[in-house]
Design brief:
Number of domains: 3
CATH superfamily of the largest domain: DNA Cyclobutane Dipyrimidine Photolyase, subunit A, domain 3
CATH topology of the largest domain: DNA Cyclobutane Dipyrimidine Photolyase, subunit A, domain 3
Structural class: alpha/beta
CATH architecture of the largest domain: Orthogonal Bundle
Order of helices and strands: EHEHHEHEHEHHHHHHHHHHHHHH
Length: 445
């Protein structure tokens, strides 16, 4: 009997436990549903990268005699409709632990009636809900989570069976849409499973050995950029973990952070939009319609490391993680604009935008999240720039008005005898706004 493999955040054929389960039933029909609820809030870079990943998956399926059937609409309507068309015995998915994904899958399961919805594995090394305290309660702090996560361990990658699967030839469906227009000059990385594996192999042979020492240096670009492939599951974190050795503990810990934020969101689904520390929701904030917010989004705050990061976001659909923290701190604690607006802006523009990591990363920096003593951490954009971009190469790459300024002086162009006339003045005084933020925190703590 036919089974349906409904792809979501697992757009690959290797290391795919749900495929193993579907193949046990009979011929496997590959399905992807273009869900307006997920596509509407996504920006053009992420949507385009998704479409390219789908094309790559379809090409790989065709090499094995199958193809990817595309349907558009509400999955609670489209998945049961397809299951009826092919008289499917079961529908197989990689389990989704995000708030919307859980509601959607429950609705699909109800609509399927007597056809089973079989959930297998997850997009994470360890599925949310498995790493808990001794009393079964979820962790709120990363360090103890990380210790138990490491002790718990994770499965080895599943065997590659794509060449042995009896693939269903597919049924009529929609075409994969053409890419939406991208911002001028933006070039996306190559998409798809083969590209993800190739990118990881190249990184593993090269810059991985420097990751622990250089991961906070945006000028050196020593991070893996694998987040764009992990987003849609073109590669699974199990695959990455299987290739890591004892010397790669710092990189392994970053994958634990990804699992931690997914576990936090699973345990507290409202934290995607609401404060993890609710008492801080009473903070006083500035209007998100202000000129300052526009200056932040456009990379013209007058603070070079902030502007470089925001221009990288526009120019690449990606931003270095250290710089993400710097620009987030600046928005919340220098401009006093609520973290939710910055998080939404990132979700619209990042190719790798992941709800759990993005929202909780913002809450961590804003001082409203899982860190036990967070709010006093206010990033100084000048010292952060000179420390992590010491020669100024990152700023000069992204801020054209400052390219003629040599060395670390690029981080304080206002100190020059002749500051560049085309670069904007600082829109706030950092020392003053830091005091304001801490005073506001004292009123609500």
């Amino acid at each position: 009997m036919t089974s349906v493999l409904w792809f979501r955040r697992d757009l690959r054929l290797a290391d795919h436990p749900a495929l193993h389960e579907a193949a046990k039933v009979g011929p496997v029909l590959a399905l992807f549903v273009l869900d307006p609820a997920l596509l509407a809030p996504a920006g053009a870079p992420r949507v385009a990268f998704l479409y390219r990943t789908l094309r790559s998956l379809d090409a790989a399926l065709r090499e094995h005699g199958g193809r990817l059937t595309i349907r558009s609409g509400d999955p609670a309507t489209e998945v049961p409709r397809l299951a009826r068309e092919v008289d499917a015995a079961s529908v197989h998915v990689t389990a989704d632990f995000n708030p919307y994904g859980r509601r959607r899958d429950d609705a699909v399961e109800r609509a399927l009636g007597g056809v089973a919805l079989v959930r297998t594995s997850s997009p994470y090394a360890v599925a949310p809900g498995r790493v808990t305290k001794g009393d079964g309660q979820p962790f709120k702090v990363f360090s103890p989570f990380h210790r138990v996560w490491t002790q718990h361990g994770w499965r080895a990658p599943a065997a590659d069976i794509a060449g042995q699967v009896d693939w269903h030839p597919g049924v009529d469906g929609d075409d994969i849409p053409t890419d939406p227009p991208l911002p001028d000059g933006l070039e996306l990385p190559e998409a798809g499973e083969a590209a993800a594996r190739s990118a990881w192999d190249a990184y593993r042979r090269g810059a991985l050995t420097r990751y622990a020492d250089e991961r906070n240096r945006p000028d050196l670009d020593s991070t893996s950029h694998m987040s764009v492939h992990l987003k849609w599951g073109a590669i699974h974190p199990r695959t990455l973990l299987a290739d890591l050795g004892p010397a790669d503990e710092v990189f392994r810990k970053e994958l634990a952070w990804r699992d931690f934020y997914a576990a936090v969101l699973y345990a507290w689904p409202d934290s995607a939009r609401q404060y993890f520390q609710p008492q801080l929701a009473r903070m006083t904030y500035a209007s998100p319609t202000s000129k300052a917010f526009d200056a932040w989004r456009e990379g013209r705050t007058g603070f070079p490391i902030v502007d470089a990061g925001m221009r990288q976001l526009i120019g690449q659909g990606w931003m270095h993680n250290r710089v993400r923290m710097i620009v987030a701190s600046f928005l919340v604690k220098d401009l006093h604009i609520e973290w939710t607006h910055g998080a939404r802006h990132f979700m619209q523009h990042l190719v790798d935008a992941d709800l759990a990591s993005n929202q909780h990363g913002w809450q961590w920096t804003a001082g409203t999240g899982t860190d036990p003593s967070p709010y006093y951490r206010v990033f100084n954009p000048i010292t952060q720039g000179t420390k992590f971009d010491p020669a100024g190469d990152y700023v000069r790459r992204w801020v054209a008005e400052l390219r003629a300024i040599p060395g670390k002086a690029v981080h304080e162009p206002w100190t020059l005898d002749e500051p560049p006339a085309t670069y904007p003045d600082r829109i706030v005084d950092h020392a003053t706004e830091r005091r304001v933020s801490l005073e506001r925190y004292q009123h609500v703590r």
